[in-house]
Amino acid sequence: MEDTTMVAKTRAEYESIGKAASQELIDIIRDIGGWHLEKAAADNNGIKVETRKSTVGESDIIMTTCELDAPAKRVLAMVLPWLPYRLQFDDLLESTQVIDQVSESMYLVQHVTKKKMPLSARESIDVVTLGKEDDFYYVSSAGTSHPDFPIRPKYVRTHQYLGGYVIYPEENENQCTFKMFIHADLNIAGPKLMNNIVQMVKPKFMADKIKALKKALVNIPIDEAHIKCLNV
Fold first, then answer.
1. Which of 125, 170, 197, 232 could form a disulfide with 132 if both were Cys (CB 3.0 to 4.6 A apart)?
2. pLDDT per position as a tens digit, 139-172
3. InterPro entries recorded for this chain (predicted)?
4. Which one is the CATH code of 4-228: 3.30.530.20, 3.30.420.40, 1.10.10.10, 3.40.50.1000?
C-alpha cells in the first residue's frame, strides 16, 4: 500500500484542500437539518452535543455548541493553532508546528496530541483556514500530508475529514456563540468494540476542551496585537 503520508503536494493543491474544507464547513452551518441531539452527552455546563451522518468515512460528524462570555475575536485568538494560547489550556494537545503559510489566512500545521485513554498518542498534518462570513467567523481544518513530516515513531497518524470552529458574535460584544466540529478517522486498530468506545468518548473530549476554554478566557491574558492582526 502506498505511504500517502510522504506524498508531496503543490501550494495550489494545499490551497484547494483548504478552500474545500472551508466551503464544506459553511455548507454544514447553513444546512440545519439532519442533526441528532445526543442526550447521553448532555451535562450541566450548557454544552450541547449533536451528531450527523456523513457520506465520507465511518464516523459521524460531531458538533458541540455553547455560549461564551467573551468577545468573538478573543475566542478566535484562543483556538488558532499558530497563536500561543491553545497550548496553554488544551490538555490533550502536546504541540503544534506551522509547516508553511499557504496564503494570508491559511496555514499547513502539524498537530500532536497526547495519550489519553482509550487513545494512544496521535498526530496529523492539516490545512487550517481562518475566514469570515456575514454573521460568523470560522476556522476550518482538513487533513493532508507533507514529505518532510512522516509519521512520528510511537504516534498514530490520523486523518481529519473536517474539523474546526464557528463563532457567532452577539449583540452584546462580550458574548458569542461557539461551535466546535470534528469528523475524523482516528485510525483505531483492533476490534470494532474499541472503535465504538472511542466514538462514545469523542463528545466528552470536546466538552472537556470547551470547559478548559471557558476557564482560559478568564485566566489567560491575550496580546491585543494578536487580535488586531487577525485577517478577518
1. 232
2. 999 999 999 999 988 999 999 999 999 999 999 9
3. StARD5/6, START-like_dom_sf, START_lipid-bd_dom
4. 3.30.530.20
